[in-house]
Protein backbone atom coordinates (compact mmCIF):
# COMPACT_ATOMS: atom_id res chain seq x y z
CA UNK A 1 0.00 0.00 0.00
CA UNK A 2 2.90 2.32 0.80
CA UNK A 3 4.32 1.92 -2.71
CA UNK A 4 0.87 2.64 -4.23
CA UNK A 5 0.56 5.91 -2.28
CA UNK A 6 4.09 6.89 -3.28
CA UNK A 7 3.39 6.10 -6.95
CA UNK A 8 0.00 7.89 -6.78
CA UNK A 9 1.64 11.04 -5.42
CA UNK A 10 4.52 10.87 -7.92
CA UNK A 11 2.24 10.45 -10.94
CA UNK A 12 -0.21 13.04 -9.70
CA UNK A 13 2.51 15.60 -9.09
CA UNK A 14 4.06 15.03 -12.51
CA UNK A 15 0.83 15.58 -14.42
CA UNK A 16 -1.13 18.04 -12.27
CA UNK A 17 0.28 20.94 -14.27
CA UNK A 18 -1.50 19.63 -17.40
CA UNK A 19 -4.96 20.49 -16.04
CA UNK A 20 -4.40 24.27 -16.01
CA UNK A 21 -2.54 24.12 -19.34
CA UNK A 22 -5.47 22.32 -20.99
CA UNK A 23 -7.87 24.80 -19.34
CA UNK A 24 -5.88 27.69 -20.84
CA UNK A 25 -5.97 26.10 -24.30
CA UNK A 26 -9.74 25.59 -24.05
CA UNK A 27 -10.22 29.25 -23.10
CA UNK A 28 -8.02 30.37 -26.00
CA UNK A 29 -10.35 28.54 -28.41
CA UNK A 30 -13.51 29.71 -26.62
CA UNK A 31 -12.24 33.27 -26.89
CA UNK A 32 -11.24 32.86 -30.55
CA UNK A 33 -14.76 31.70 -31.42
CA UNK A 34 -16.45 34.43 -29.39
CA UNK A 35 -17.95 32.07 -26.81
CA UNK A 36 -16.10 33.59 -23.84
CA UNK A 37 -14.54 37.04 -23.95
CA UNK A 38 -14.16 37.72 -20.23
CA UNK A 39 -13.98 35.63 -17.09
CA UNK A 40 -13.98 36.70 -13.46
CA UNK A 41 -10.83 36.29 -11.42
CA UNK A 42 -12.58 34.13 -8.80
CA UNK A 43 -13.99 31.80 -11.49
CA UNK A 44 -10.62 31.52 -13.18
CA UNK A 45 -8.79 30.78 -9.93
CA UNK A 46 -11.38 28.14 -9.01
CA UNK A 47 -11.05 26.51 -12.43
CA UNK A 48 -7.25 26.54 -12.33
CA UNK A 49 -7.18 24.90 -8.90
CA UNK A 50 -9.88 22.33 -9.67
CA UNK A 51 -8.35 21.42 -13.04
CA UNK A 52 -4.98 20.88 -11.33
CA UNK A 53 -6.63 18.66 -8.70
CA UNK A 54 -8.55 16.81 -11.41
CA UNK A 55 -5.33 16.13 -13.38
CA UNK A 56 -3.52 15.11 -10.17
CA UNK A 57 -6.18 12.53 -9.29
CA UNK A 58 -6.56 11.30 -12.88
CA UNK A 59 -2.82 10.69 -13.25
CA UNK A 60 -2.36 9.38 -9.74
CA UNK A 61 -5.11 6.77 -9.90
CA UNK A 62 -3.34 5.09 -12.81
CA UNK A 63 -0.99 3.76 -10.13
CA UNK A 64 -3.74 1.29 -9.19
CA UNK A 65 -2.44 -0.83 -12.07
CA UNK A 66 0.88 -1.29 -10.24
CA UNK A 67 -0.73 -3.27 -7.41
CA UNK A 68 0.30 -6.85 -8.19
CA UNK A 69 -2.32 -8.56 -6.03
CA UNK A 70 -5.18 -6.65 -7.68
CA UNK A 71 -6.78 -8.34 -10.69
CA UNK A 72 -6.98 -6.18 -13.82
CA UNK A 73 -10.81 -6.03 -13.97
CA UNK A 74 -10.89 -4.80 -10.36
CA UNK A 75 -8.12 -2.28 -11.10
CA UNK A 76 -10.13 -1.02 -14.08
CA UNK A 77 -13.27 -0.73 -11.95
CA UNK A 78 -11.42 1.23 -9.26
CA UNK A 79 -9.71 3.47 -11.79
CA UNK A 80 -12.93 4.09 -13.72
CA UNK A 81 -14.92 4.86 -10.58
CA UNK A 82 -12.34 7.32 -9.28
CA UNK A 83 -12.02 9.01 -12.67
CA UNK A 84 -15.79 9.28 -13.02
CA UNK A 85 -16.19 10.88 -9.59
CA UNK A 86 -13.19 13.14 -10.23
CA UNK A 87 -14.41 14.39 -13.60
CA UNK A 88 -18.10 14.77 -12.84
CA UNK A 89 -17.40 16.56 -9.56
CA UNK A 90 -15.14 19.13 -11.20
CA UNK A 91 -17.45 19.59 -14.20
CA UNK A 92 -20.46 20.21 -11.96
CA UNK A 93 -18.55 22.38 -9.47
CA UNK A 94 -17.20 24.63 -12.22
CA UNK A 95 -20.51 24.80 -14.09
CA UNK A 96 -19.01 23.12 -17.15
CA UNK A 97 -21.98 20.76 -17.22
CA UNK A 98 -25.55 21.47 -16.13
CA UNK A 99 -26.76 19.68 -13.01
CA UNK A 100 -29.59 17.81 -14.73
CA UNK A 101 -30.44 14.14 -14.97
CA UNK A 102 -30.17 14.28 -18.76
CA UNK A 103 -26.69 15.86 -18.75
CA UNK A 104 -25.40 13.52 -16.04
CA UNK A 105 -26.88 10.51 -17.85
CA UNK A 106 -25.31 11.54 -21.15
CA UNK A 107 -21.95 12.17 -19.48
CA UNK A 108 -22.13 8.80 -17.72
CA UNK A 109 -22.91 6.97 -20.96
CA UNK A 110 -20.13 8.66 -22.88
CA UNK A 111 -17.67 8.08 -20.02
CA UNK A 112 -18.49 4.37 -19.69
CA UNK A 113 -18.23 3.76 -23.44
CA UNK A 114 -15.02 5.79 -23.78
CA UNK A 115 -13.35 4.27 -20.72
CA UNK A 116 -14.31 0.74 -21.75
CA UNK A 117 -13.09 1.29 -25.30
CA UNK A 118 -9.73 2.61 -24.09
CA UNK A 119 -9.30 -0.35 -21.70
CA UNK A 120 -10.18 -2.86 -24.43
CA UNK A 121 -7.70 -1.27 -26.85
CA UNK A 122 -4.94 -1.31 -24.22
CA UNK A 123 -5.77 -4.90 -23.23
CA UNK A 124 -5.66 -6.12 -26.82
CA UNK A 125 -2.40 -4.27 -27.54
CA UNK A 126 -0.71 -5.72 -24.45
CA UNK A 127 -2.05 -9.20 -25.21
CA UNK A 128 -0.73 -8.97 -28.77
CA UNK A 129 2.65 -7.75 -27.53
CA UNK A 130 2.89 -10.64 -25.04
CA UNK A 131 1.92 -13.11 -27.75
CA UNK A 132 4.63 -11.75 -30.04
CA UNK A 133 7.23 -11.99 -27.25
CA UNK A 134 6.18 -15.59 -26.51
CA UNK A 135 6.47 -16.46 -30.19
CA UNK A 136 9.99 -14.98 -30.33
CA UNK A 137 11.04 -16.80 -27.16
CA UNK A 138 9.70 -20.14 -28.36
CA UNK A 139 11.41 -19.66 -31.70
Total domain units: 2
Please state the structural category.
Answer: mainly alpha
Which percent band covers the strand fraction?
under 5%
| Shape annotation | elongated
Overall strand count: 0
Provide the succession of SSEs: HHHHH
Mean pLDDT: 94
Gyration radius, to the nearest Å?
A: 19 Å
Largest sheet: none
| Helix residue percentage | over 70%
- Low-confidence regions: none
* Quaternary: single chain
* Cα distance spanning the termini: 39 Å
Number of helices: 5
Account of the 3D structure:
- The chain has 2 domains: 1-97; 98-139.
- It has 5 helices and no strands.
- The chain has helices at 2-15, 18-32, 41-60, 72-93, 101-138.
- α1 packs across α3 (41-60).
Keywords:
mainly alpha; 139 residues; 2 domains
Map the helices and strands.
Layout: H1 2-15, H2 18-32, H3 41-60, H4 72-93, H5 101-138
Entry summary:
This protein has helices spanning 2-15, 18-32, 41-60, 72-93, 101-138. The chain is an all-alpha fold. The protein is elongated, with a radius of gyration of 19 Å.
Amino acid sequence: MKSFVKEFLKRGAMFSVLGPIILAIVYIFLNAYGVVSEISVSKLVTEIITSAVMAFVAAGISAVNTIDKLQKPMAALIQGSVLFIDYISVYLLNGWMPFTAQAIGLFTGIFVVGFTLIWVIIYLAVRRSISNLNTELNG
